[in-house]
Structures are given as structure tokens and as C-alpha cells.
Amino acid sequence: MHIGFIVGSTIASAVLIAGIIGWLLSKRKGYKNVWAGWAIVFGVFALISAVINAGIR
């Protein structure tokens, strides 16, 4: 594996997990959390990009 894939997937996973935790906490408290939604979207697309880039090389 390339170092770019490892670093990219690690950061994407961390952002995705933070977004999911933020979203779950906001649902529990009953308010809308916009940054959590964007973090989830960014994390998913970053993971897809990391997988595609790892498969090309």
C-alpha cells in the first residue's frame, strides 16, 4: 500500500467517525447539526477517492 492511501483513508475515517458521532449527538439532543452532515459527506467521498486512487496504481 502507498503512504498516500494510508494517510488519506485514516484522515477520511477520522472525519467520517467525527461526523457520525456529531450527528448522533445532535439527534439525541434534538437539534440540527450542519457540520456533521458535511463531515459525513466529505468522509465518504474521501474514502471513495482513496480506494479509486489505490486501485489505479
Secondary-structure blueprint:
Blueprint: H1 3-29, H2 34-56
Helix pairs in contact: 1-2
Characterize the structure shown.
The longest helix has 27 residues, at 3-29. This protein starts with a helix and ends with a helix. It is mainly α and 57 residues long. 88% of the residues lie in helices and 0% in strands. The model has no long low-confidence stretch (mean pLDDT 88). Keywords: Membrane, Transmembrane, Transmembrane helix. The chain crosses the membrane at residues 6-25, 37-56. This is Nidogen G2 beta-barrel domain-containing protein.
Short description:
The protein has 57 residues and is mainly α. 88% of the residues lie in helices and 0% in strands.
How would you describe this structure in keywords?
57 residues, mainly alpha, 2 helices, elongated
Low-confidence stretches: none
Give the H and E element order.
HH
Q: Strand-residue fraction?
A: under 5%
Question: Helix count, per DSSP?
Answer: 2
Mean pLDDT: 88
Helix vs. strand class? mainly alpha
Percentage of helical residues?
Answer: over 70%
Instruction: Report the end-to-end length measured between terminal Cα atoms.
Output: 10 Å
**Strand count, sense and closure of the main sheet?**
none
Shape by Cα distribution: elongated
Radius of gyration: 13 Å
- The tally of beta strands, per DSSP, is 0
